[in-house]
């Protein structure tokens, strides 16, 4: 029986301990290593490494409950295919990586694909060109644009230009030749004649000029399709301009790969680029995209972000299946799953490729780009503003420079806003035209000025969420919306936002505590308590002197000396500095009681003085205010009238205001001496301008906002609009706040009534000692009289 009981106890202990151990093991994060093999000295390599690191950091900050963590091991190939091959081999054998990201060229892609095919390890390439020769490798994955969709888009554009023949100019390199095959085949299928092809290498300018002269002999009116790297594109267009091939009758189209590489070129001859059309992968503008690309400025970083998220999600899904072998199963998970990315909401692998099928069609206007359309699969999603713009694309550069042909931009402006410093609309009764002013409008007008638009302001009286929906559904009536419009995720579903032009986040505004100057040390006690304390210090000295004088030589002497002794002894107890020896038990008792009272008084004084000087910093538990659950339930509304909120703070109706930074900045501008912002949190995205989905103006205006911010122009505008103190009587209002501070400080002081219990104890002790002393003196007098008689 005892043996059975022992066994049962052991089983119970084992069943109790085992789940705990399992839970502990489950809490361990599993690291999955991924190799990155690129030329870290190249611009592409640097951007790829940085983008992957930032993307994984952002991903795991959001998905912090995931049990796996992808870590990237970077190796420098130095642009050498053999070094890349050696690095991948080393990563597979020694570092035990589960996947490889790399391959910047076609030769490098074939070498890496051969190695990883044997190791059954997926290799993901963001930089290698699309080639039919790579299709035989099952473990080679490409993230790129869809060459078939691009070929259809270029063909459709050429048809819209009423052209039937093209001249194809490409770079004399295996990478560029193989990636051009799909486009060439599609031209033949669509009966577009390829009148001439020209292959150019990194030769001199004379050779390039000669090749272009040969091309022009075939046709004086031609469409040139260019497929080469950024350096050659820049040189080619400069040579074409010298030969007069950038004139009205010539159309230049850059392929998506050429535009992608051209994007990495920091300096180019803007004059020679004017009027050139380019295809490139479309990246929708969203708050997430803007947040990421603001840290990694190149467009290509978005592809790296999507690859990082795909890998991290796939690894986590694999861990949930408790699979021990990651590499063989990782590719299968990636094929079966769909992912949400920045480029598109639903990313799926098709034939070992993550393809981007939507293209943005842009042309160069001066030093900037202008979107003229979007191409998706088999149709244009968005055409140029005018039905004839596609047909006269090369000519539009002349219209842009002519003020008589300004395009009208129809802008919706919230008319119910009651803060004129932000947005204000006024109707001119004579012309019937609305004019708009305010900080938001000045920023918008400054950003839109380089694009030569005529602005038409249209008042809007609804709420801001409906404003986004209206702009999305009535694209034939409205082009943009401008005002104190906060960038939110639900509005981004309908429109494209620009970068925020205000400080992001919310803050806490409260009344500023007024400084008391050099007499601030009197604040802890009110007048009655100071007077009572001083009186008792003097009384203590008098009573002790009265009791000790007959028997203690230290309390004797001239009347002047005795008066000084009384005052000295009483006030020295403040710091316990009295050194006189007391002879009477009654005086000792009195001093003990009084020192207890002094201890309470000094402690209360120190505590109150400390709290009054730090109370403004600890009035709010900011972590509680800014907790995520609080923010999710909190409804942030616009400040309609500055004076209403200021008055609520002054009269104590509101102790603090929690709202977006621009509104609080406006209040601080009007009342710099009355209010203070105690804390802030980047929980909102600030104000932005809204444009139609896919509008190129969102990107262009974002660039202008970034430029204004870097030059400090935005700060200057804020000072002009947020600090107009003459429009309100700030002096008198600040006085009201000061008087309110006085009331608060008076309320926080200790009064005699609050500590009267201490003084009652001290008074009783003093009265008792005096009574005992008088009884003792009476006894002595009676004794002397009896002895006398």
What are its keywords?
789 residues; alpha/beta; Rossmann fold; D-Maltodextrin-Binding Protein, domain 2; 5 domains; eight-stranded mixed sheet; 26 strands; elongated; Ionotropic_Glu_rcpt
Give a description of the structure:
38% of the residues are buried. Mean pLDDT is 76; it is low at 7-26, 264-270, 382-405, 618-640 and 724-744. It contains 29 helices and 26 strands. The longest helix is centred in the last third of the chain and has 34 residues, at 585-618. The termini are far apart. Strand 1 (30-38), helix 2 (43-62) and strand 2 form a beta-alpha-beta unit. It has five domains: 30-144 and 287-353, Rossmann fold; 145-286 and 357-380, Response regulator (Rossmann fold); 406-502 and 700-711, D-Maltodextrin-Binding Protein, domain 2 (3-Layer(aba) Sandwich), CATH 3.40.190.10; 507-515 and 620-687 and 716-748, no CATH class; 535-618 and 761-788, no CATH class. It is elongated. 49% of the residues lie in helices and 18% in strands. The protein is of the alpha/beta class. The protein has an eight-stranded mixed sheet, sandwiched between helices. A six-stranded parallel sheet has the order 2-1-3-4-5-13, sandwiched between helices. Strands 20-17-21-26-22 form a five-stranded mixed sheet, covered by helices on one side.
